[in-house]
Input
Amino acid sequence: MKAPATEDWVARSLKAVWHPCTQMKHHERLPLIPVARGSGAWLYDRAGHRYLDAISSWWVNLFGHANPRINDALKAQLDTLEHAMLAGCTHEPAIELAERLAQLTQNTLGHAFFASDGASAVEIALKMSFHYWRNHGRSEKREFVCVANSYHGETIGALGVTDVALFKDAYDPLIRHAHVVASPDARNARDGESAADVARRALESVRALFEARATQIAAVIVEPLVQCATGMAMHDASYVAGLRALCDQYGVHLIADEIAVGAGRTGTFFASEQAGVWPDFLCLSKGISGGYLPLSIVLSRDEIFAAFYDDDTTRGFLHSHSYTGNPLACRAALATLDLFASDNVLAENAKKSAHLCEALKPLATHERARNFRQCGTIFAFDAVLEASAAQTFSRRFFEKALAKELLLRPIGATVYLMPPYILDTEEIALLAARTRETFEATLTEAH
Output
C-alpha cells in the first residue's frame, strides 16, 4: 500500500507545487523525495527510506529535525502568543532575541530589524544604507558594490548585488546593477601566492573603485569567509578586515551577509569575528531559527539607528511585512541560542569537523578532485570533469547520493557538505564513506 500512496503524493506535488530553484521538467526523471518526517540528522520518506541531511536542508537545520528542546520551546510559546503585529506592539520573544544578539556582538550592533528570509534582510540593509545617507543630506550615495560571483538573494534588489548569471540574466531589465569587484576566492591564487595574497590583490580593486566613486557609493556587501552559492568559494579573513578599513577610510557602509555563514557555520558564531571587525549592517537568517520557521534579522549600529530617529515620519524606516518579529520564529531562535549556550557547540563543532576532515582525506587526495577546502562545518571540493559530463554532474550526483542514503546537492561541479551540528561518530564515518562512493559512482557513469 505504501508504494502507490507515495507515487500518488509525488504526482500530486508535481502537478500542484511549483518547486523553488528547479527546472520542473527535470523531475520527469529526477527523484522527488516525498519527505514524511525528520528525526535528528535524518529525513524519512513515505516508504520508510532514510536520507542523511548532509546539507542541513539548504543550510538551515543546525540541531537536527524535530529537536526536542526547540520543540518544547515552540509548544510553550503556542500556548502564550502565536502572533501580534510588531508595528505599535511589542512582545518578549522579539525583545529578548534582539538583546541577546546584540550581546553576541559586544553591543556593537545594538538594533535588530526583523524580516522573514535572507533576501529580505539584504533588501533591508541596502534600503537602510541608502536612506541613512539621504537622511544625512547625501542622497547621491545610492550605488552599491558586490564581489564577483557573489550571491545575496533573488528578489529584485538582492539580484542587483548578486553576480551569478543563472539567477539574474533573465531579469536584467528590472535590475539596478551594482559595481562588481574582484573575488578574494583563494582558488585564484597564482603560483607561490597564499590566500592572504589573493585577498590583498582583491582589496586593491576595491580601493581603486572607492577612489573613483566613493562619493556615490552607499555600501559594499560581502559574505564573510565563504561565498556559498557560487560553489563555497573561501577566502582569507584579512579580506573582510581590509574591507572594513577601506570603508572607514572612504566613508562607505559595510554590509556582512551572514545569512549562510552566521550562527556558527564558520567556527565562530559570526564569521566577521574571525576578521576582528564588525560591519555596519549584519544580515542573519537560515540557521538562526534552527531551521524551524522563516526568520531574518538585520543588526545595525547606534549611529545607523540614530539617523532615522526623528519627529518626521518620512525620515523613519518605513519597511514592514505582516509577520515581522513573529513570536514563534523568535522563540525558535531563542531556543537555538540556548543550545549554543548550554552545549558548548562551537568547541564540539571544531572536534567533529576535525574528525570529518580526517575521514574525507581520500577525497582530498582523489585524482579527480581539486581544491579540497574547509571552513568551520563547511567542506567542499571541485570535481575534475570533461565538458560533456559537467552540465549534468550535479543532478547525477544528487540521484546517486539518494541511493546511498545521503541528501547532497552539488553546486555545478562543486561537491559540498554542510551537515547539522549533531552528527555522531558513526554518522560522520557514514557521511564520509558514502560521499566518496557517490563521487566514484558518478564519475564511472560519465564514462
Q: What stands out?
A: The two ends are 38 Å apart (CA to CA). The mean pLDDT is 95.
